[in-house]
Amino acid sequence: MSLTEKFLWGASTSAFQIEGAYNIDGKGLATTDVRHVPEGMADTKVACDHYHHWKEDVDLMAELGLNTYRMGFSWSRIMPDETLTPNPKGLSFYDQLIDYLLEKNIEPLVTLYHFECPQALVDAFGGWKSRKMIDAYVKYAEVCFRHFKDRVKKWVTVNEQFIATAAPDLAMGYIEDPYERSKWIYQISYHVSLAEHRAFSLLKEIDPEAYIGPVCSIQVVYPATSDPKDVAAAKEAEEMMEFILLDLSVYGEYSPFAKTWLKKRNLYPETKPEDAEILHSSKPDFIGVNYYFSTCAKYEEKPFGFDTSFFWAADDCRIVPNEHVQKTEWMNMGTDALGLYDGMRKIYERYHLPLIVTENGIAVSEKLDEEGKIHDDYRIAYLKDHIDQVLKLREEGYPVFGYCPWSFMDVLSSHQGFSKRYGLVFIDRTETDPKECARVRKDSFFWYQNVIRTGKTV
Ligand code: BG6
Prior knowledge:
By secondary structure, the chain is an alpha/beta fold. The protein has helices at residues 15-18, 31-34, 50-64, 75-78, 88-103, 119-125, 132-147, 161-166, 168-171, 178-206, 228-251, 256-264, 275-280, 337-351, 377-395, 443-454; strands spanning 8-9, 68-72, 107-113, 154-159, 211-217, 221-223, 287-291, 295-299, 317-320, 355-360, 400-403, 425-428, 438-441. Strands 1-11-10-7-5-4-3-2 form an eight-stranded parallel β-sheet.
Protein backbone atom coordinates (compact mmCIF):
# COMPACT_ATOMS: atom_id res chain seq x y z
CA MET A 1 0.00 0.00 0.00
CA SER A 2 1.35 3.46 -0.80
CA LEU A 3 2.08 5.80 2.05
CA THR A 4 -0.79 8.14 1.33
CA GLU A 5 -3.48 5.62 0.45
CA LYS A 6 -5.06 5.25 3.87
CA PHE A 7 -5.57 8.24 6.19
CA LEU A 8 -4.04 7.65 9.59
CA TRP A 9 -6.04 8.85 12.56
CA GLY A 10 -3.61 8.70 15.42
CA ALA A 11 -2.50 10.29 18.65
CA SER A 12 1.00 10.95 20.02
CA THR A 13 3.17 10.54 23.05
CA SER A 14 6.89 10.15 23.70
CA ALA A 15 8.70 7.68 25.93
CA PHE A 16 10.19 9.87 28.68
CA GLN A 17 6.98 11.88 28.99
CA ILE A 18 4.80 8.88 29.84
CA GLU A 19 6.70 5.73 30.78
CA GLY A 20 8.08 6.35 34.29
CA ALA A 21 9.93 3.23 35.57
CA TYR A 22 13.04 5.32 34.93
CA ASN A 23 15.51 2.93 36.51
CA ILE A 24 13.98 -0.52 36.51
CA ASP A 25 14.36 -3.66 34.39
CA GLY A 26 17.81 -2.64 33.29
CA LYS A 27 16.98 0.85 32.01
CA GLY A 28 19.91 3.27 32.11
CA LEU A 29 19.52 6.91 33.05
CA ALA A 30 18.54 9.24 30.24
CA THR A 31 19.56 12.89 29.95
CA THR A 32 15.97 13.74 30.86
CA ASP A 33 16.24 11.68 34.08
CA VAL A 34 19.22 13.57 35.43
CA ARG A 35 18.59 17.16 34.42
CA HIS A 36 17.60 19.68 37.07
CA VAL A 37 13.86 19.81 37.81
CA PRO A 38 12.64 22.72 39.98
CA GLU A 39 11.33 21.82 43.43
CA GLY A 40 7.62 20.94 43.35
CA MET A 41 7.60 19.95 39.69
CA ALA A 42 7.01 16.42 38.40
CA ASP A 43 9.92 14.54 36.86
CA THR A 44 10.39 11.41 34.75
CA LYS A 45 10.40 8.94 37.64
CA VAL A 46 6.72 8.02 37.35
CA ALA A 47 5.32 10.34 34.64
CA CYS A 48 2.04 8.53 33.65
CA ASP A 49 3.35 5.17 34.80
CA HIS A 50 2.64 3.89 31.32
CA TYR A 51 5.22 1.17 31.97
CA HIS A 52 2.68 -0.46 34.24
CA HIS A 53 -0.52 0.76 32.50
CA TRP A 54 0.41 0.02 28.87
CA LYS A 55 -2.34 -2.55 28.33
CA GLU A 56 -5.06 -0.31 29.71
CA ASP A 57 -3.68 2.51 27.54
CA VAL A 58 -3.84 0.43 24.37
CA ASP A 59 -7.39 -0.61 25.26
CA LEU A 60 -8.29 3.08 25.49
CA MET A 61 -6.64 3.73 22.11
CA ALA A 62 -8.69 0.94 20.60
CA GLU A 63 -11.87 2.34 22.14
CA LEU A 64 -10.97 5.75 20.71
CA GLY A 65 -10.70 4.15 17.29
CA LEU A 66 -7.07 5.01 16.51
CA ASN A 67 -5.53 3.21 13.56
CA THR A 68 -2.08 4.64 14.40
CA TYR A 69 -0.20 5.39 17.58
CA ARG A 70 2.79 7.66 17.37
CA MET A 71 5.01 6.54 20.21
CA GLY A 72 8.66 6.80 21.17
CA PHE A 73 11.33 4.36 22.18
CA SER A 74 13.53 5.24 25.10
CA TRP A 75 17.11 4.73 23.90
CA SER A 76 18.33 4.20 27.46
CA ARG A 77 15.74 1.46 28.04
CA ILE A 78 16.98 -0.38 24.95
CA MET A 79 20.68 0.44 25.40
CA PRO A 80 21.40 1.49 28.97
CA ASP A 81 25.09 2.39 28.74
CA GLU A 82 28.09 3.21 26.60
CA THR A 83 28.73 -0.43 25.72
CA LEU A 84 25.56 -0.18 23.61
CA THR A 85 24.58 -3.69 24.59
CA PRO A 86 20.85 -4.22 24.05
CA ASN A 87 18.81 -4.72 27.21
CA PRO A 88 16.49 -7.74 26.67
CA LYS A 89 13.96 -6.50 29.21
CA GLY A 90 13.81 -3.12 27.51
CA LEU A 91 13.15 -4.73 24.14
CA SER A 92 10.54 -7.03 25.61
CA PHE A 93 8.63 -4.08 27.08
CA TYR A 94 8.25 -2.71 23.55
CA ASP A 95 7.57 -6.21 22.17
CA GLN A 96 4.51 -6.66 24.33
CA LEU A 97 3.30 -3.12 23.66
CA ILE A 98 3.70 -3.38 19.89
CA ASP A 99 2.21 -6.85 19.72
CA TYR A 100 -0.84 -5.68 21.60
CA LEU A 101 -1.20 -2.57 19.42
CA LEU A 102 -1.13 -4.76 16.33
CA GLU A 103 -3.65 -7.14 17.86
CA LYS A 104 -5.94 -4.11 18.22
CA ASN A 105 -5.24 -3.04 14.60
CA ILE A 106 -3.30 0.03 15.66
CA GLU A 107 -0.17 0.64 13.63
CA PRO A 108 2.83 1.92 15.60
CA LEU A 109 4.69 4.92 14.20
CA VAL A 110 7.88 4.84 16.24
CA THR A 111 10.17 7.77 17.04
CA LEU A 112 13.73 6.68 17.75
CA TYR A 113 14.96 9.92 19.26
CA HIS A 114 12.70 12.28 21.16
CA PHE A 115 14.66 14.79 23.27
CA GLU A 116 16.76 12.26 25.21
CA CYS A 117 19.66 9.88 25.02
CA PRO A 118 21.51 7.71 27.52
CA GLN A 119 23.35 9.98 29.96
CA ALA A 120 26.19 7.43 29.83
CA LEU A 121 26.97 8.57 26.29
CA VAL A 122 27.22 12.18 27.40
CA ASP A 123 29.49 11.17 30.28
CA ALA A 124 31.64 8.91 28.11
CA PHE A 125 32.31 11.24 25.16
CA GLY A 126 30.12 14.34 25.34
CA GLY A 127 27.05 12.96 23.53
CA TRP A 128 26.36 14.63 20.17
CA LYS A 129 29.47 16.80 20.52
CA SER A 130 31.40 13.76 19.37
CA ARG A 131 31.14 11.91 16.08
CA LYS A 132 31.11 8.74 18.17
CA MET A 133 27.48 9.56 18.84
CA ILE A 134 26.67 9.14 15.15
CA ASP A 135 27.89 5.53 15.27
CA ALA A 136 26.08 4.96 18.57
CA TYR A 137 22.79 6.23 17.13
CA VAL A 138 23.19 4.07 14.02
CA LYS A 139 23.84 1.03 16.18
CA TYR A 140 20.73 1.79 18.22
CA ALA A 141 18.70 2.29 15.05
CA GLU A 142 20.01 -0.99 13.64
CA VAL A 143 18.98 -2.94 16.75
CA CYS A 144 15.50 -1.43 16.55
CA PHE A 145 15.09 -1.89 12.78
CA ARG A 146 16.15 -5.55 12.92
CA HIS A 147 14.24 -6.44 16.07
CA PHE A 148 10.94 -4.83 15.01
CA LYS A 149 11.29 -5.36 11.26
CA ASP A 150 8.13 -7.38 10.79
CA ARG A 151 6.01 -5.21 13.03
CA VAL A 152 7.04 -1.55 12.65
CA LYS A 153 6.76 -0.12 9.14
CA LYS A 154 6.93 3.58 9.88
CA TRP A 155 9.83 5.21 11.71
CA VAL A 156 10.77 8.72 12.79
CA THR A 157 14.49 9.42 13.06
CA VAL A 158 14.47 12.50 15.27
CA ASN A 159 11.71 14.54 16.88
CA GLU A 160 12.16 18.29 16.47
CA GLN A 161 15.86 18.52 15.79
CA PHE A 162 15.47 22.25 16.40
CA ILE A 163 14.60 21.77 20.08
CA ALA A 164 16.44 18.46 20.55
CA THR A 165 19.79 20.03 19.79
CA ALA A 166 19.21 23.56 20.98
CA ALA A 167 18.49 22.58 24.55
CA PRO A 168 22.04 21.54 25.45
CA ASP A 169 21.20 19.50 28.56
CA LEU A 170 19.21 17.09 26.38
CA ALA A 171 22.05 16.30 24.01
CA MET A 172 25.39 17.34 25.55
CA GLY A 173 26.63 19.10 28.67
CA TYR A 174 25.77 22.74 29.36
CA ILE A 175 28.23 25.27 27.92
CA GLU A 176 28.53 28.58 29.72
CA ASP A 177 30.00 30.82 27.02
CA PRO A 178 27.17 31.98 24.70
CA TYR A 179 29.26 31.97 21.51
CA GLU A 180 30.72 28.53 22.25
CA ARG A 181 27.25 27.25 23.07
CA SER A 182 25.84 28.43 19.75
CA LYS A 183 28.80 27.02 17.87
CA TRP A 184 28.27 23.64 19.47
CA ILE A 185 24.55 23.71 18.88
CA TYR A 186 25.12 23.96 15.11
CA GLN A 187 27.89 21.37 15.29
CA ILE A 188 25.83 18.80 17.17
CA SER A 189 22.86 19.46 14.94
CA TYR A 190 25.08 18.70 11.95
CA HIS A 191 26.10 15.43 13.61
CA VAL A 192 22.42 14.60 14.10
CA SER A 193 21.83 15.19 10.38
CA LEU A 194 24.64 12.79 9.49
CA ALA A 195 23.23 10.16 11.87
CA GLU A 196 19.77 10.63 10.42
CA HIS A 197 20.96 10.06 6.84
CA ARG A 198 22.78 6.92 7.86
CA ALA A 199 19.56 5.69 9.48
CA PHE A 200 17.57 6.45 6.28
CA SER A 201 19.99 4.31 4.25
CA LEU A 202 20.19 1.56 6.84
CA LEU A 203 16.45 1.10 7.03
CA LYS A 204 16.25 0.69 3.25
CA GLU A 205 18.84 -2.09 3.46
CA ILE A 206 17.14 -3.87 6.37
CA ASP A 207 13.52 -3.37 5.39
CA PRO A 208 12.97 -1.81 1.96
CA GLU A 209 9.21 -1.77 2.52
CA ALA A 210 9.36 0.43 5.60
CA TYR A 211 9.07 4.23 5.62
CA ILE A 212 11.15 6.73 7.53
CA GLY A 213 11.26 10.48 8.02
CA PRO A 214 12.08 13.32 10.41
CA VAL A 215 9.58 15.22 12.53
CA CYS A 216 10.07 18.98 12.42
CA SER A 217 8.69 21.68 14.61
CA ILE A 218 6.94 23.90 12.07
CA GLN A 219 7.89 27.53 12.37
CA VAL A 220 5.24 29.74 10.85
CA VAL A 221 6.58 33.25 11.18
CA TYR A 222 4.52 36.15 9.86
CA PRO A 223 5.99 39.62 9.30
CA ALA A 224 4.85 41.90 12.14
CA THR A 225 3.91 44.57 9.54
CA SER A 226 4.06 44.97 5.78
CA ASP A 227 7.35 46.89 6.11
CA PRO A 228 9.62 45.02 3.66
CA LYS A 229 12.22 44.77 6.42
CA ASP A 230 9.75 42.88 8.62
CA VAL A 231 8.86 40.65 5.68
CA ALA A 232 12.56 39.83 5.21
CA ALA A 233 12.95 39.23 8.96
CA ALA A 234 10.11 36.68 8.93
CA LYS A 235 11.62 34.88 5.96
CA GLU A 236 14.99 34.77 7.68
CA ALA A 237 13.45 33.37 10.86
CA GLU A 238 11.71 30.53 9.01
CA GLU A 239 14.87 29.77 7.11
CA MET A 240 17.07 29.62 10.22
CA MET A 241 14.61 27.86 12.54
CA GLU A 242 13.01 25.36 10.18
CA PHE A 243 14.30 25.05 6.63
CA ILE A 244 17.95 24.92 7.69
CA LEU A 245 17.21 21.54 9.26
CA LEU A 246 14.77 20.16 6.71
CA ASP A 247 17.12 21.13 3.86
CA LEU A 248 19.75 18.89 5.44
CA SER A 249 17.22 16.08 5.99
CA VAL A 250 15.88 16.17 2.44
CA TYR A 251 18.59 17.68 0.22
CA GLY A 252 21.62 16.97 2.39
CA GLU A 253 22.85 20.55 2.25
CA TYR A 254 22.34 24.05 3.59
CA SER A 255 20.64 26.65 1.42
CA PRO A 256 22.94 29.42 0.13
CA PHE A 257 21.25 31.77 2.59
CA ALA A 258 21.82 29.52 5.61
CA LYS A 259 25.40 28.75 4.61
CA THR A 260 26.24 32.44 4.29
CA TRP A 261 24.45 33.27 7.53
CA LEU A 262 26.46 30.67 9.45
CA LYS A 263 29.79 31.51 7.87
CA LYS A 264 29.38 35.24 8.44
CA ARG A 265 28.95 34.61 12.15
CA ASN A 266 31.63 31.95 12.39
CA LEU A 267 29.08 29.28 13.28
CA TYR A 268 29.48 26.98 10.30
CA PRO A 269 30.09 23.43 11.58
CA GLU A 270 33.23 21.44 10.96
CA THR A 271 32.66 18.95 8.19
CA LYS A 272 34.64 16.07 6.67
CA PRO A 273 35.01 15.32 2.95
CA GLU A 274 33.18 11.99 3.29
CA ASP A 275 30.09 13.68 4.79
CA ALA A 276 28.77 14.89 1.45
CA GLU A 277 28.30 11.33 0.20
CA ILE A 278 26.38 10.36 3.37
CA LEU A 279 24.17 13.43 3.23
CA HIS A 280 23.38 13.10 -0.47
CA SER A 281 22.84 9.38 -0.75
CA SER A 282 19.54 9.11 1.10
CA LYS A 283 16.24 10.90 1.45
CA PRO A 284 13.27 10.63 3.82
CA ASP A 285 9.98 9.13 2.63
CA PHE A 286 7.86 11.67 4.46
CA ILE A 287 8.02 14.66 6.80
CA GLY A 288 6.18 14.72 10.13
CA VAL A 289 5.11 18.13 11.36
CA ASN A 290 4.52 19.32 14.91
CA TYR A 291 2.52 22.51 15.17
CA TYR A 292 1.17 24.40 18.16
CA PHE A 293 1.16 28.14 17.29
CA SER A 294 2.60 30.72 14.91
CA THR A 295 4.80 33.73 15.66
CA CYS A 296 5.73 37.11 14.15
CA ALA A 297 9.08 38.67 13.32
CA LYS A 298 10.06 42.30 13.47
CA TYR A 299 13.16 43.89 12.01
CA GLU A 300 15.46 45.25 14.68
CA GLU A 301 19.11 45.95 14.32
CA LYS A 302 21.13 45.15 17.40
CA PRO A 303 24.56 43.89 18.30
CA PHE A 304 24.98 40.23 17.54
CA GLY A 305 24.17 38.21 20.65
CA PHE A 306 23.29 34.64 21.33
CA ASP A 307 20.58 35.32 23.82
CA THR A 308 17.62 36.27 21.61
CA SER A 309 16.46 32.74 20.96
CA PHE A 310 18.32 29.54 21.37
CA PHE A 311 19.51 28.07 18.11
CA TRP A 312 18.51 31.07 16.11
CA ALA A 313 20.41 34.04 17.49
CA ALA A 314 19.52 36.85 15.14
CA ASP A 315 21.15 40.25 15.02
CA ASP A 316 18.59 41.88 12.78
CA CYS A 317 15.18 40.83 13.97
CA ARG A 318 13.24 39.49 16.91
CA ILE A 319 10.21 37.31 17.46
CA VAL A 320 7.17 39.19 18.76
CA PRO A 321 3.60 38.15 19.64
CA ASN A 322 0.87 38.52 17.04
CA GLU A 323 -1.86 40.92 18.14
CA HIS A 324 -4.41 39.27 15.83
CA VAL A 325 -4.48 35.92 17.62
CA GLN A 326 -5.85 34.93 21.00
CA LYS A 327 -3.33 34.14 23.76
CA THR A 328 -4.15 31.29 26.11
CA GLU A 329 -3.00 30.36 29.59
CA TRP A 330 0.04 28.39 28.44
CA MET A 331 0.39 29.59 24.87
CA ASN A 332 1.60 33.15 24.98
CA MET A 333 1.99 33.38 21.22
CA GLY A 334 -1.73 32.57 20.84
CA THR A 335 -3.35 29.88 18.73
CA ASP A 336 -3.72 30.03 14.97
CA ALA A 337 -5.18 27.19 12.91
CA LEU A 338 -4.51 28.92 9.59
CA GLY A 339 -0.82 28.76 10.47
CA LEU A 340 -0.95 24.98 10.21
CA TYR A 341 -2.31 25.24 6.66
CA ASP A 342 0.29 27.83 5.72
CA GLY A 343 3.18 25.94 7.29
CA MET A 344 2.30 22.60 5.71
CA ARG A 345 1.87 24.14 2.28
CA LYS A 346 5.26 25.81 2.50
CA ILE A 347 6.88 22.53 3.48
CA TYR A 348 5.20 20.66 0.66
CA GLU A 349 6.12 23.34 -1.87
CA ARG A 350 9.79 23.15 -0.86
CA TYR A 351 10.17 19.36 -0.51
CA HIS A 352 7.33 17.62 -2.38
CA LEU A 353 7.11 14.83 0.17
CA PRO A 354 4.06 13.28 1.87
CA LEU A 355 3.22 14.91 5.17
CA ILE A 356 1.70 13.78 8.44
CA VAL A 357 0.77 15.90 11.45
CA THR A 358 2.64 14.19 14.27
CA GLU A 359 1.74 16.68 17.02
CA ASN A 360 -0.85 19.40 17.44
CA GLY A 361 -2.62 20.42 20.61
CA ILE A 362 -3.49 22.96 23.28
CA ALA A 363 -2.16 23.02 26.84
CA VAL A 364 -4.53 23.84 29.69
CA SER A 365 -4.38 23.39 33.48
CA GLU A 366 -7.18 20.99 34.30
CA LYS A 367 -8.73 19.37 37.37
CA LEU A 368 -11.52 16.81 37.61
CA ASP A 369 -14.87 18.43 38.43
CA GLU A 370 -17.21 17.18 41.19
CA GLU A 371 -18.51 14.45 38.92
CA GLY A 372 -14.99 13.34 38.09
CA LYS A 373 -15.09 14.72 34.53
CA ILE A 374 -13.17 17.12 32.29
CA HIS A 375 -15.36 19.21 29.98
CA ASP A 376 -12.69 20.47 27.61
CA ASP A 377 -14.68 22.39 24.96
CA TYR A 378 -11.62 24.62 24.39
CA ARG A 379 -9.63 21.55 23.28
CA ILE A 380 -12.44 20.37 21.03
CA ALA A 381 -12.57 23.85 19.44
CA TYR A 382 -8.78 23.92 18.95
CA LEU A 383 -8.62 20.42 17.46
CA LYS A 384 -11.62 21.05 15.20
CA ASP A 385 -10.11 24.22 13.75
CA HIS A 386 -6.80 22.50 13.08
CA ILE A 387 -8.22 19.24 11.72
CA ASP A 388 -10.38 21.32 9.34
CA GLN A 389 -7.19 22.80 7.88
CA VAL A 390 -5.72 19.32 7.44
CA LEU A 391 -8.87 18.12 5.69
CA LYS A 392 -8.77 21.22 3.47
CA LEU A 393 -5.20 20.43 2.42
CA ARG A 394 -6.29 16.91 1.54
CA GLU A 395 -9.27 18.12 -0.45
CA GLU A 396 -6.94 20.39 -2.38
CA GLY A 397 -4.81 17.39 -3.24
CA TYR A 398 -1.84 17.75 -0.89
CA PRO A 399 -0.49 14.34 0.16
CA VAL A 400 -1.28 14.61 3.86
CA PHE A 401 -1.66 11.08 5.16
CA GLY A 402 -2.41 11.43 8.85
CA TYR A 403 -3.19 13.48 11.90
CA CYS A 404 -2.01 12.79 15.44
CA PRO A 405 -3.03 15.21 18.18
CA TRP A 406 -0.68 15.84 21.06
CA SER A 407 -1.31 14.09 23.21
CA PHE A 408 -3.13 10.81 23.57
CA MET A 409 -3.07 11.27 27.34
CA ASP A 410 -1.78 14.02 29.60
CA VAL A 411 1.98 13.72 29.67
CA LEU A 412 4.89 15.19 31.54
CA SER A 413 5.64 18.45 29.71
CA SER A 414 8.99 18.64 27.98
CA HIS A 415 10.16 21.12 30.66
CA GLN A 416 7.14 22.38 32.63
CA GLY A 417 5.92 19.50 34.75
CA PHE A 418 2.47 17.99 34.90
CA SER A 419 0.12 20.98 35.31
CA LYS A 420 0.27 21.74 31.61
CA ARG A 421 -2.11 19.20 30.09
CA TYR A 422 -2.70 18.37 26.44
CA GLY A 423 -4.34 14.93 26.59
CA LEU A 424 -7.56 13.40 25.36
CA VAL A 425 -7.27 11.20 28.44
CA PHE A 426 -6.77 12.80 31.86
CA ILE A 427 -4.10 11.36 34.16
CA ASP A 428 -5.17 11.72 37.75
CA ARG A 429 -1.98 12.87 39.44
CA THR A 430 -0.49 16.14 40.64
CA GLU A 431 2.99 17.60 40.26
CA THR A 432 4.20 15.98 43.43
CA ASP A 433 1.78 13.11 44.02
CA PRO A 434 1.50 10.48 41.29
CA LYS A 435 -1.39 8.79 43.15
CA GLU A 436 -2.59 5.81 41.07
CA CYS A 437 -2.30 7.67 37.75
CA ALA A 438 -5.92 6.72 37.00
CA ARG A 439 -7.06 7.31 33.42
CA VAL A 440 -10.21 9.41 32.79
CA ARG A 441 -11.65 10.06 29.31
CA LYS A 442 -12.17 13.79 28.65
CA ASP A 443 -15.02 15.16 26.49
CA SER A 444 -12.45 15.59 23.71
CA PHE A 445 -11.88 11.83 23.75
CA PHE A 446 -15.50 11.19 22.75
CA TRP A 447 -15.46 14.04 20.25
CA TYR A 448 -12.30 12.71 18.54
CA GLN A 449 -13.77 9.21 18.57
CA ASN A 450 -16.65 10.55 16.48
CA VAL A 451 -14.28 12.39 14.12
CA ILE A 452 -12.42 9.13 13.50
CA ARG A 453 -15.67 7.24 12.98
CA THR A 454 -17.18 9.75 10.54
CA GLY A 455 -14.14 11.47 9.04
CA LYS A 456 -15.87 14.78 9.84
CA THR A 457 -15.37 17.37 12.58
CA VAL A 458 -19.05 18.24 13.08
C1 BG6 B 1 6.83 19.34 21.22
C2 BG6 B 1 7.44 18.08 21.71
O1 BG6 B 1 7.84 20.26 21.07
O2 BG6 B 1 5.96 20.02 22.06
C3 BG6 B 1 6.72 17.39 22.85
O3 BG6 B 1 7.71 17.19 20.67
C4 BG6 B 1 6.24 18.44 23.83
O4 BG6 B 1 7.59 16.46 23.44
C5 BG6 B 1 5.27 19.34 23.10
O5 BG6 B 1 5.64 17.91 24.98
C6 BG6 B 1 4.64 20.40 23.98
O6 BG6 B 1 5.61 21.15 24.60
P1 BG6 B 1 5.66 21.28 26.19
O7 BG6 B 1 6.89 22.04 26.45
O8 BG6 B 1 4.44 22.01 26.55
O9 BG6 B 1 5.68 19.91 26.74
